[in-house]
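ok trying again, last paste got cut off:
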Amino acid sequence: MGIDCLLISTNQVVTPYPVYPLGIAHLAGAMEEAGHKTVHYDILANGGIEGLKSVLTSSHPMLVGLSIRNLDTVDSTSKETYISEVIDIMTLVRHYSSAPVVLGGPAFSILPDELLSLLDADYGIVGEGELLLPWLAGCIESGDPPAKKIFRSNPAKNPWSPVQYDRKIADYYLAWGGMLNVQTKRGCPYTCGYCSYPSLEGRRYRFQDPEAVAHNVMRAVRDFGADYIFFTDSVFNDPKGHYLKVAEALIRAGNTTPWCAFFRPQGFEKDTLMLLKRSGLSAMELGTDAGCDQTLAGLHKGFAFDDVKHANDLAHSLAIPCAHFIIFGGPDEDRGTLAEGIQNLESLNGSVAFAFAGIRILPGTAIFERAIAEGIITRDQPMREPVYYFSPKIEEQELNKQLRKAWAGRFDRIFPASVMEDRIKHLHNHGHVGPMWDFLVRKRRK
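nice, full thing came through this time. structure:
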């Protein structure tokens, strides 16, 4: 028979633009397959706290799930945190419902014990929930709720569930830039020093069938009116070439909708980018992360700045705009590498660069271990409030001063990254679709 479940997207962040909660779309598909009736409530799209109060008073779910996407901005120049908003949501749920509450989502998976205790929830799922959430719902339905509190998914066994977009929620996100999200793979084999993706999704790629990906894209366009697709993979261009099969499937399906994704700036050739462009590639977000070879090595990136330059030059030759996301102040940064990095970025034609200062320290990352070794944090220190790693070889104030000075008055070199928020809102309000930074590059080309 199944039970009634209420899944709540708690995210209220719209910087740099609101992003459809794709994780719950997959969970809703898995729950429906298992016979459970699921209502998806999105705090941004469905009317905030007041709307949630109405849903809780008019329905009687037997299980409530809270998806927690972000702990904070991960930006040292704008240290806003978001867990207090989740506490308010949890308080409301407890007031109006006696159903057990299960926590999940990326932020929860990073700090499961700390957040389960803080929010006084009944259960928590670390990682993907397509198997564990229907199982937990089944236990509750049978009157045999588990005594264990936290469950950890096995990425290797987690299935690909159908994506179940919600019409009303999709309309909200489409109004902010016309984008819906699709995923082609999970997991990440790379060892970038700051990144929590491997601990969240596993260290091996798990691919979705390319034809299924193309079907999801065409359905998002046909049934929901998406004008732009963003692939949310940790890295779109995998060494095994699955991404090329996705591109070929999109071409066979007749896709004409533009798309963007996160790319690793390594291993590109012109024919590769030409194929991607034929399939709809409109812009590339590159995980460049550092501005010179010394700081790239400090972040364990596994490529050199020459690789970045090569990828950017190829994209520029094909009129594909690129965004580079750069972290200054990471391991081995000093005055010399800062100056070199700023100069190197000047060679990246037809691109936008977003700079961040310092690295938000997260458990399960190499930076976490380095910060312990350097005495910045202790291993048992609570990490809900943001702590940032800065190289001891350069002062934070000097770093920020030099970046502001170097990029003053530039529209294509942005620091702090948070200043882009108002520009993106302005462009969305004038009907432009997509990630918006690419519009700045295209405008300059004209």
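cool. The two ends are 59 Å apart (CA to CA). The chain has 18 helices and 17 strands.
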